[in-house]
User: Fold this.
Amino acid sequence: MTKTKIATKGLDWSYAPAPESADHFQLKGQYGLFIGGKFFPASSGKRFPTINPATEKILAHVAEAGAKDVDQAVRAARVAYEKVWRKMPGRERGKYLYRIARILQERARELAVVESMDGGKPIRESRDVDIPLAAAHFFYHAGWADKLGYAFPGKTVQPLGVVGQIIPWNFPLLMVAWKVAPALACGNTVVLKPAETTPLTALLFAEICQEAGLPDGVFNCITGAGATGAALVNHAGLDKVAFTGSTDVGKAIQKSLAGRSTKLTLELGGKAANIIFEDAAIDQAVEGIINGIFFNQGHVCCAGSRLLVQESVEKEVVAKLKARMAHLIVGDPLDKNTDIGAINSKGQRDRIRDYLKFGQEEGAELFQTSCSIPQKGYFIRPSFFTKVAQSHRIVQEEIFGPVLAIQSFRTLDEALEKANNTPYGLSGGVWTDKGAKIFKVTRGIKAGVIWANTFNKFDPSSPFGGYKESGYGREGGRHGLRAYLECL
Ligand code: NAI
Ligand code: MG
Assistant:
C-alpha cells in the first residue's frame, strides 16, 4: 500500500496507511432473493456480480429477480400483512424494530466495511454516518410504533398494506432504514429492491431480520437492476410505491402508476445552492463547502453542488477552498485517512467525466487538485468550475460527483434568484452571521431542507424531501410516518 503524500508550505506530510480490516466476517459467494423469510435463487437461475468499485474485483454474485419472483415476493408480503403484521399491536411491532436496531449496532463494523467495499464510500463515513444513522432510524421508528394515534391526534390511523420500495446506491443501508423502518412501524409489509451496484448490505439486512425473528414475509428483498424495479412498480398488488433515485426513473414510475390507486412518494435529484455571505465565518463556511460537495464523493441528492458566494469575498473563499482541497485524500475506501473514496460504478465515473467535458466546452474554467489517485478502480479528483453561467449544464443538471460549480452574487435577491433557478428544489445552505438573513434565505429558497451555518446534517426526527423535480412526500419525522398511513 502506498503512502499518501501531501505537500504543505515546504513540509512533506506522509500518512501511513490505516486500513480497516475485512477479516472479521466472511461474505458468501452467492446471495439469493429473500422472500417469505427465506433465501431462494431466482426462478430463472440468473445471477449478476456486484463489484468493489475501488478494486474492480467481484465481491459476490446476487440473484436477478424476474417478474415471477417479484410476484412471489408481493404475495408473501400480502400474506404477512393480512395474517400477522396488520393485526399485531403496535407495541409488539415496536419490539421487532428495537431488535433490528440493536443488531444493526452489534454488526456495525461488518456492515460499515461491506458498505465501503460494495459502494466505494470512505470507511470513516460508513462507520460514523451511514450505519449509526440507519440504527437511529430503527430506534426512532420503534418508538412510534405504539404511539401512532398521538402522532395524528383526533385521527384514526391505519397501515396502507404492501409497499414496494426502490432505493439507490449512494446510501445503500441508510436508504433501507429510511424506507423500511417507517413502513414497518406503521404496520405495512415491504418488498424492497436495492440498487444493482450495492445490494450486499440490504441482503445482510435480510439476515438481520431473520436473526431478529421478524415474522416471515414482513420484509422481502429482491435484487436486480432497472427491469426488476419496473416489474415491482408494475405489480398490481402494491398499495404504495416509494422511490429514491434519478428524476428520469421517478417520472417513468409516475407514468406507470397513473390511473392506479397505488400511492407514491418520490425522492429524486437535487442541485442545491450553498450560499456564502460576506459576513459569514469564512473558514467554517469553507469546511461547509467541502462537506457539502465532497461528502460521499458528491453522490448525495442534497449535495451543495452549487456555491453562490458574495462577490466581495469570492477571491478569499476560492483561495481558501483550493488550499483546503489540496489536503483531501482520494483513495482506498477502507483506509481511515481517506476523504474521498471510489466513484460507485464505471457508468457513474463516465457520466461525471462527461460533465467535466461539457463544462469546459461551455466555457467554464475547471480546477482539479493534483492528488494521487489509485491506478485501478474508479476515482475522480476533487474539482470545481469557475466562470460558469446560470444556463450551463453543470449549473442546471445533477452531476452526482465531486464537482462544484462556483458563481458569485452581489445582493441577497440575486442569490435567491440564482438559487431557485434550476428544475430542482431539494436542499440549500446559507452561511451568514446575521439571523435575519438566515430567515430571508430559508423563506426565499424553494427547497425541502435548508441548513444554516452547517450542511448535510441528518436526524430521523427531521423530515426530508423536495419540491419541483426533486419529488414529493417526506421521509423522517411525523411527516414521514404520514406517508405510510391512512389517516381517517
Ligand atoms: P436510477 O434512478 O436508475 O437508479 C435508482 C434505482 O432505481 C436503482 O435501484 C435502479 O435499479 C432502479 N431503477 C432503474 N430503472 C428503473 C425503472 N425503470 N423502474 C423502477 N426502478 C428502476 O439512477 P442511476 O441511473 O443509477 O443514476 C443516474 C443519475 O441519477 C445519477 O447520476 C444521479 O444524478 C441520479 N441519482 C439520484 C439519486 C438520489 O438520491 N436522488 C440516487 C441515484 C441516482
Ligand atoms: Mg458493488
